[in-house]
Structure formats: structure tokens, C-alpha cells
User: Which sequence fits this backbone?
DNA sequence: CCAAAAGTGTTTTAGCTACACCCATGA
DNA sequence: TCATGGGTGTAGCTAAAACACTTTTGG
């Protein structure tokens, strides 16, 4: 529930849809590892998913997209809503209070940011190499963390990530071609590494190759001569 | 966006999470037809999905469950959240105004119910035969409609139903055993009829039977002697 | 020529379909 | 014994997995 633009903070939340927030689980892939983007708030040690609020004149999807564009510099991010979290036990005003205090903002109890939120969660699939991270006003870092070395997170953000990953695994075959996890051109081995990182298991090389080729989503280009002493692999891109 | 308890309507929405609502697509099955529960508002001719608001002391899931229990009398409803709709184009205050007016409530422009809502949508699978419908305070009917004979609906409710049905079709094999679409005990033919109504296509009898038996979700009981001149079918129930 | 990694041919397996046939039932 | 509908055996198809083999590459 980090937010990107809090400078003019009104107590009643004018201009924003109160009680509604979004959180985004941004997946990236580099060095053979699946990674997630997390933010750390100034002077608090608190780490959270990047998120924000919805302005009264924005579509929900649009708000999420713009919030992410601000932080990653990427336009055209692959984004998908996967769940809305609305348990009342998520309401921990002392945490948000602490974050605001650490930034010199003394919010009264009735401040809209201290009230209970329903949070709509999205996941994104981005190419880490094209991202230049921009912490927001309340945070001093915005960093990639390996999926299996996550730090302690505020609220139920660990659960949110868990569910995002589950959804991603379930839909991977359908989503991979629209994702931005890999650069435009890649080898079959690159693609297999992405699958293995996401599914958390090793796959048979030959079965994987055949399954992918049967899917008709790959376009084959020239071979890649790496200078190494073995057959050169084909380069692929996703169709259209 | 019907609501179940509006008697004490405060302008600022105290006690409710403003800007958040839920809509529920309740599927039922009878007479070989898939049906959906819809409500008609007093003196307006407006027809909508049953829905409501979330109280500040309720979980989101709990609010939806209780709202449905009020209307159908069923406890233990199978409920699943499938999408959250948040386009700003959904905001049509004149419709809600009309509904309130028709009930003698003259709400000022800044009334919370006339503001923009994010709506969390759920679908439910219930056994029509155990339901006794209860219209809420703003509605004069609460009726089952055949899925392919739906009336014109307010806002984007037709889209919501479309998406609910798509989700249900996609997950049917996984959800059927927890659904309440059929009474506890049923024949293979009954089950096939449910599948056909949901998928909107006819299925081969023998293939269907084998697929279901292979799924290990059915427990076989005695035979059902209907008094008709043919082999008596087995009775089944879902495991656990 | 060798080792490493890529690509492909062949066999096996599993699930589903289609068709056939037999069985139980009450008139 | 007949018509009706339910259950299951068998053969065929297709997609995926498993295994083996060949090819390409630079040292």
C-alpha cells in the first residue's frame, strides 16, 4: 500500500476513492531467478508491495498501470488482476501511521489513509533489463528480491504474493506470450529457465521444446553463435 | 447493487465502506435450465444483480455471504470471487438516484450511495429447490431467470454475468463437487444435464460417464428404481 | 576427434472419442 | 419378449512424455 503521490494530503481523501487501494506483484526474471519488486519505507524498516490509491477520475486498471509506470519507467506493462483482499483483519492503522510519522506527516485518527481498505491485487510480468526503478515519495528503496529469499513483509503481503504466484503458475501457458519477462528475442533454453523459475521445478529439455513448438506461439529466427563449442541454438520471438 | 438493509441511511455512509460494493451472480439449476437470480426495484422497471455494501466491521467475504443468506435462506453457499470491476464509466448516479427516489428517499448529490463504486463480483452455485427467495427493502421481486432469456440489466451487469459464466465454465471440473447445484444425491444423467446447461452444449453420454468416474469425485450408492421400463441408474453423491 | 549442447525420430503412455454390445427394467 | 435407457468393453485417435539418437560447434 505504498503510494506514489501523497504531497497534498487531505484528511477526508478528496480526489481519491477512499477505502480502496491496489497492490501489485511485479514479477521479473534475471540471472536465472524469478524476482519480485518490493519497496522499503523511509526510516521504518517496513517492506511492502508497491501499491497505491485510485483517483476519482481514473479507471481502476488505469490507476494501477500509471502507478507502475511511475516506478518502473515501462509503458505497456502486462498486467492482470487476480484477487481482491477484503478481510477486516487487514486493517492495521498503526502501520500506516508509523509510515506517515516517519515522513513527518502527523495524521489524525480519522485520516482516510488510516481507515480500512479493500485492496485489489494485480500481477505484472516485466523485463528487468528495461526497468529503471524509481522509489516513491514515502520510500527510500525499490528493489528486486529473489522469490525464495523474500524479507518479512507488512500486513498480508506474503499471502498476496503466494496467491499471485499460484495464479501465474496456473495460467502460465496462456500468459507467457504476452508477458515481458524475456527480451524480444531469446533461445529455447532461456524460455525454459523462465518456466522452471516460475514453476519451481526442473523440466525435461526435449519435452519442453516440443510442447512449445506445438503451441504455435514461437517464431523461429537465425541461429545464435555464442562462440562456444556446441551446436548453435535457434533464436525465437513470440508471434505478433 | 441492491442492498439488503438501508433503513438508517446516513449521507456520509457511516458504518459502511464507502466506494466499495459487491455484486453476486447466483447460479441455480432446475427444469434442465441454468438460471440466475435477479432483482427488480420498486416502481422503476430496473433489473439488477443482487448486491450490497460492506459494513466496517465485516470481512468482504462475510458481507457477501450474509447478503445472500438473507435473500435465499441458504447457509453454506458455495461462493467464489471472480473479478473486481472498477471502470469510472460504471458510475451512473442517476440510476441509483432513481431507485432511491422511487422509494421515497431524496438523497443529496453528495450522498455516499450516489458516489462512484468499485464492485467486487462473486458467483454462487445453489440448489434452487432449497431456496426461498426474499426480496430486500428496495426491491419488489427476486426471481430466477433462464440464462439465455435474461432481461435488460442496469449498468454493466450483463458483462458481469458474462464473465461469471466464462469463469464457471473454465473451472467447472474443479468446482462442481463443492457446488450446491444438485441435491445431495443424483444420477449421472442429472449431472450431465448440469454440465450441458453450463457449457451450453450437448455431451456424449458414455464419454461423460467415463470422465466423471475417472475423476474420483463420485461416490456410488444404490440404484434408483423410478418405475420406468429400463435399467435403473446408480445414485451418486460427491465424495466428502 | 572430442565434449557439450541442440535438435529430432521413435516408442510408450494416457486420456478421450466413437462405436458396439450387453444388461436391467416394467409393460 | 420388447422397447428403453444404463453400464461397460474395445478399438482408434491425439497429445504428451520418455528415451535414444544424430547434428553442430570450437578446441
Assistant:
Amino acid at each position: 500500500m505504498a503510494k506514489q503521490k501523497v504531497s497534498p494530503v487531505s484528511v477526508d481523501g478528496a480526489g481519491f476513492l477512499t477505502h480502496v487501494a491496489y497492490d501489485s506483484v511485479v514479477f521479473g526474471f534475471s540471472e536465472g531467478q524469478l524476482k519480485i519488486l518490493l519497496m522499503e519505507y523511509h526510516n521504518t524498516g517496513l517492506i511492502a508491495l508497491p501499491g497505491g490509491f485510485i483517483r476519482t477520475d481514473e479507471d481502476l486498471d488505469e490507476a494501477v498501470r500509471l502507478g507502475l509506470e511511475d516506478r518502473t519507467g515501462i509503458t505497456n506493462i502486462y498486467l492482470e488482476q487476480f484477487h481482491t483482499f477484503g478481510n477486516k483483519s487487514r486493517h492495521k492503522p498503526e502501520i500506516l501511521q508509523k509510515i506517515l510519522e516517519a515522513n513527518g506527516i502527523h495524521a489524525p485518527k480519522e485520516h482516510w489513509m488510516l481507515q480500512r481498505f479493500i485492496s485489489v491485487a494485480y500481477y505484472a510480468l516485466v523485463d528487468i533489463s528495461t526497468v529503471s526503478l524509481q522509489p516513491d515519495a514515502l520510500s527510500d528503496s525499490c528493489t528486486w528480491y529473489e522469490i525464495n529469499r523474500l524479507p518479512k513483509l507488512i500486513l498480508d503481503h506474503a499471502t498476496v504474493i503466494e496467491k499471485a504466484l499460484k495464479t501465474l503458475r496456473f495460467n502460465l501457458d496462456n500468459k507467457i506470450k504476452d508477458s515481458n519477462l524475456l527480451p524480444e528475442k531469446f533461445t529455447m533454453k532461456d524460455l525454459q529457465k523462465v518456466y522452471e523459475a516460475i514453476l519451481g521445478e526442473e523440466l525435461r529439455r526435449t519435452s519442453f521444446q516440443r510442447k512449445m513448438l506445438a503451441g504455435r506461439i514461437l517464431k523461429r529466427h537465425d541461429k545464435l553463435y555464442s562462440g562456444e563449442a556446441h551446436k548453435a541454438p535457434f533464436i525465437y520471438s513470440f508471434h505478433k
Summary: The beta strands of chain B are 16-30, 33-41, 47-48, 51-55, 78-85, 118-126, 139-146, 186-187, 218-223, 234-238. The helical segments of chain B are 60-72, 93-102, 157-175, 188-199, 205-214.
